[in-house]
Amino acid sequence: MDIDLVKSWKDQLQPEFDKPYFKDLMQFVEREYEEHTCYPEYVDIFSAFNHCEFEDTKVVIIGQDPYHGPNQANGLCFSVKDGIKHPPSLINIFKEIESDLGIPYPESGNLERWAKQGVLLLNATLTVRAHEAGSHQKHGWEVFTDAVISKLSENSEHVVFMLWGGYAKKKAKLIDAERHYLLTSGHPSPLSANRGYWFGNKHFSSCNKILGDLGNKNIVW
């Protein structure tokens, strides 16, 4: 499998590509895409990286799995393609931004606009079989994306990590909290949000305050 990745990330992650687990993972992914319908589209598997260069990364949002319905996943966590109905978690993200920052609810759920400003939208597992949530977990993706988080922690400074829900919070152990900023809350899924663990976290204004204090541009959420 040819890894279609921008140079800044390729330079950081080349050691992972050479490891046996990653070669096994790529064989698994190729086989799955040949034999089943999988998401995102093959060309979009590494989109999160290709829309946000390593040295431009100011914020990291961690998801778990790509959307597994038709035409939803575009390679960025929580994001959907233009014109696609917003899934429940994304609706709650936009509602929180609306109340936190007074920004009108957006028409498009495509978060490439965030990525281009330095927000890495990283799913722990980068592929999934259609209509089978979690079907590509535990095949090596998590090892790879943990390495991504570790590289960012070690080789960059002052990154804001947004850890939403129990799964994402476990990634805190990979991050040097003295060099970076960790914002944690419940997950934006309806189950968590309706229990009061998501709304009112003010992560988007908090993130922009951190970036502003560092002399960085705010994210236009």
Q: Major β-sheet, in short?
A: 4 strands, parallel
What order do the SSEs take from the amino end to the carboxyl end, as H and E? HHEHEHHEEHEHEHH
Structural class: alpha/beta
Instruction: Measure the end-to-end span.
Output: 34 Å
Q: Per the principal axes of the C-alpha atoms, what is the gross shape?
A: globular
Number of domains: 1
CATH architecture: 3-Layer(aba) Sandwich
Radius of gyration: 17 Å
CATH topology description: Uracil-DNA Glycosylase, subunit E
Number of strands: 6
Q: What is the CATH superfamily? A: Uracil-DNA glycosylase-like domain
Can you tell me the residue ranges where pLDDT is under 50 for at least 5 consecutive residues? none
| Percent helix | 25-40%
Strand order of the largest sheet: 3-2-5-6
Subcellular location: Cytoplasm
Catalytic activity: Hydrolyzes single-stranded DNA or mismatched double-stranded DNA and polynucleotides, releasing free uracil
Function: Excises uracil residues from the DNA which can arise as a result of misincorporation of dUMP residues by DNA polymerase or due to deamination of cytosine.
GO molecular function: uracil DNA N-glycosylase activity
Structure description:
InterPro entries: UDG_fam1, Ura-DNA_Glyclase_AS, Uracil-DNA_glycosylase-like, Uracil-DNA_glycosylase-like_sf. By secondary structure, this protein is of the alpha/beta class. It has one domain (7-214): Uracil-DNA Glycosylase, subunit E (3-Layer(aba) Sandwich), CATH 3.40.470.10. It has nine helices and six strands, in the order H-H-E-H-E-H-H-E-E-H-E-H-E-H-H. The strands form two sheets. The protein has a four-stranded parallel sheet. Strand 5, helix 7 (165-169) and strand 6 (181-185) form a beta-alpha-beta unit. The longest helix is centred in the N-terminal third of the chain and has 16 residues, at 20-35. The protein is globular and about 45 Å long. The N and C termini lie far apart (34 Å).
